Amino acid sequence: MLAYAARRTLLAAPTLLVLIVLCYVLMYFSPGGPFTAERPLPPQVLANIEAKYGLDKPLHAQIWDYVVAIVTRFDFGPSFVYKDRSVNEIIAQGFPVTLTYGSISFVAATLVGVSLGVLAAVRHNTLLDFIAVGATFSAQALPNFVMAPILVIVFTWQLGWLPGGGWSGGKWEYIVMPVIALSTSFMASIARITRSSMLEVLNSGFIRTARARGISPAAILWRHAMKPAMLPVVSYLGPVFVAMITGSVLVDLYFSTGGIGLSYVNAALNRDYAVMLGVTILYGSLTIAFNLLVDLLYAWLDPRIRY
Amino acid sequence: MPILSARNLSVQFKTGDGRVDAVKSLNLEISAAECLGIVGESGSGKSQAFLACMGLLAANGRASGSVLFDGREILNIPEKKINSIRGNEIGMVFQDPLASLTPHLQIGRQLEEALQAHTEIAGAESKKVCIEWLDRVRIPEAAHRFSHFPHQLSGGMRQRVMIAIAMICRPRLLIADEPTTSLDVTVQAEILDLMEAIGKSEGTAIALITHDMGVVAQMCERIVVMQKGEIVEQGSPESIFHSPGQEYTKALLDAVPHFDKPRKAAARRKTSANPVLAVQGLKVHYPFRRTRSLLGRASKLKAVDGISFSVQPGETLGIVGESGCGKSTLARSVLQLITPTAGSVSWLGRELAGLSRAKLKPFRKELQIVFQDPTASLDPRMTLGATIGEPLAVFRPGMNSRDRRRAVLAAMEKVGLEPGLLNRYPHELSGGQNQRVGIARAMINEPRLLVCDEAVSALDVSIQRQIVDLLKNLQEEFGLAMIFISHDLAVVREIAHRILVLYLGRAVELADSDAICETPLHPYTRSLIAAIPVPDPRIPRKRPVECRRGDLNSVLEPGAALRFLPSKLESDGASYIPKFLEPLPGHFVEEFDSIHDDQRTLATGVKSDSGRKQFPR
């Protein structure tokens, strides 16, 4: 297991390298450049600016410089648009915000989704089950860009309970609505996956054997059914976490939370190639890390899985 | 007073097709310390009746009537109350030991759990009791196995663990629901022995539920025969076996293959000297990583290790061996469904090994296979007509749809399927019907070789008999060659002309069917024969021949190939390859330690007696 984790971590490095190179190449070949504008700059000025950022060098030299800077100094270079700011600074400013409400959303979606799913499965075909199924179906139809305006209309305009936007260093009243908006549809999906996998496990042979042994329903649920029922949920949770972080742009937009998502989109609009690259690589590393985490969790949940 | 008595016990299921009566006012009694056999085909309600007693029916099931355990009503009582009886006063063992143990819990923990639910025993004491029980069910190195997970044990060992779990609180009744159905014959004999011994020593009553008359013959004191939710006959084994009163009982008895009085295989056609299929030195080796280190070294798993045989036209070759002996791998590598590592497979003189997919395609029409699990080997989204007709679309693309339909209907008639089933789906049919579909699909292009890979193993004994008869008829009609693979020598004897016995990927004996069964030479063949249950209560069950035991049954063990040749293992080391000898004309056997004594016996004309002769370990 430890050896496997080590092997996978070692493998992550070349994967990341490929990701960096691929992204860089894509950016390089996309039409236009970081300093293309509606009113073209004089060629001499453009050449000077490009030389300043090292963009006049051949492609392989650019990639080499980029990778070396990241590996040796963890430096993603300067922003192409904000003259006095580096990519590192932009990420350092936005990412903690996104990570804060993203993690809270993730934990909330998982806790509520799993509990709801388990409850519905245990009370299969009862009123509670029907309510849970109905609620999750409706909630799944409410992605964050639908949820956000509804929340603002209800809690800010109508009731006036919560501020309609801002961050204020992460005070709770500023976090509530972004979290609800971001987590609702994921919560519903988690609940549905949990319910169906739990139902399948509860109908399996080893649960029947455990019941034939006279074990209490609670012990059967926690000791025998929970781990195998969590397998499909866990494989869904990895991508969910990444999707919550990357999908946060709309939350940033609606609630002006100032997270990384907005910087990402703005970078794309402003041709800030350096920021786009940096954030893409950040997302990529998150994806790789979470896939590894999911695989390791799998081995813990099911001893038959050995790497 | 009976320990368990059911009065007017009925079980109903609400299904999409309406109400199904699984059990219809059943009256049944089990006395203390009695061993009762409950026999019937799948769907006769025998399992559901006992699941209802235990309160373990599926959610759509309802039970009514009354079940008294030790004078107390236990039917439909609250979960809390029944939980003090389940596992404590009534233990239960289920069919599939892999699916019946929680995969992520150590077997020791699952044992302890039963103990802790019903007794005050805890801590170190409970671990000690659990290890004692693992020892009692004859699990080698019990203390070490305590922390193993179910998947790390063999099927037989898992079933022993199940028995230990069911017995650990010393129940007064043990319900065993098809406890040996998915196990090899040799393992089945051991499990039955074990249940009998533990039942006797603990004074536990046993309810043994099975479809196989052979299993209950020597073990049970009383037998109940069930059909369609009702008891049709009951009595002592003597009366049931020797003077059955009901047609249904007779049919069940008839279905059991009689190893001692076999029915004949299909008449063998006068064969030319040229075999249709010749396999020479076939090997299938898999690389696998033994260690879990960063750079584990790959070693080889020799699933099939140098096997040679041939099949004549119109002949059935039986291939017999236990789980893990490589018989399925052998079949698939012969058909090039698995690429062999080495060796040659020649079909009508043309080499198949190493051909590309495209070049193999014309041969596929002549070489067909029927698989073990009939329902799983059919596409659940295709109707029977579409499944059976698919090979036509592949090999006779010119055929129009009306001709194809006619051909499909003709094939269905051949295998005994009603034409009305044409548009049904696999889940709507029984296992036996689905296996007929599998056979029809294989037969529709009139192949010249049919491989049946455990084709009847998942079926009830009575259905098994029907399928074997069907295969024999098809062979007589079309003169096709067959390879019939099974772990059950008794079934193979009924259909095969020659039998090849496999042990750990190697051929240990090959001879005419009668020669193998009546004068087996190899000790492994003898142990297989000894394990076959005799469906006659007057003959006491034989113990498995001792020469094979000791749980050395993995190909991965060093020196596994020399299991029966320890002298060479000592002198030449594990790399020695045993020779394949021909001590009698047409009777081949792999070299084993006492073979030379045996040859002397044979030379002097003394018939060897498989029952009494002792072979050195």
What does this structure look like?
The complex is a heterodimer of chains A (307) and B (617). With 307 residues, chain A is mainly alpha-helical. In chain A, 76% of the residues lie in helices and 0% in strands. Chain A has helices at 2-29, 43-53, 59-73, 87-122, 127-140, 144-158, 172-202, 205-212, 217-246, 249-255, 260-269, 273-301. With 617 residues, chain B is α/β, with parallel strands linked by helices. Among the domains of chain B are: 2-255, Rossmann fold (3-Layer(aba) Sandwich); 375-479 and 491-495, Rossmann fold. In chain B, 33% of the residues lie in helices and 24% in strands. An 8-stranded mixed beta sheet of chain B has the order 16-17-18-13-19-20-22-21, sandwiched between helices. A 6-stranded mixed beta sheet of chain B has the order 6-7-8-3-9-10, with helices on both faces. A 4-stranded antiparallel beta sheet of chain B has the order 2-1-4-5, covered by helices on one side. In chain B, α3 (107-118) crosses α4 (123-136), α3 (107-118) runs parallel beside α6 and α6 (155-167) packs parallel to α7 (185-202). Chain B is globular, with a radius of gyration of 26 Å. In chain B, 48% of the residues are buried. The interface between A and B is medium-sized, with 32 and 36 residues.
How many angstroms does the end-to-end distance of chain A come to? 7 Å
Give average pLDDT of chain B, whole number. Answer: 85
Structural class from helices and strands of chain A?
mainly alpha
User: How many strand units of chain A?
Assistant: 0
Bin the strand percentage of chain B.
15-25%
- Strands of the biggest beta sheet of chain B: in what spatial order? 16-17-18-13-19-20-22-21
Assembly classification:
heterodimer
Looking at this protein, list some descriptive labels.
heterodimer; A: 307 residues; mainly alpha; 12 helices; B: 617 residues; alpha/beta; Rossmann fold; 8-stranded mixed beta sheet; 6-stranded mixed beta sheet; 21 helices; 33% helix; globular; disordered C terminus
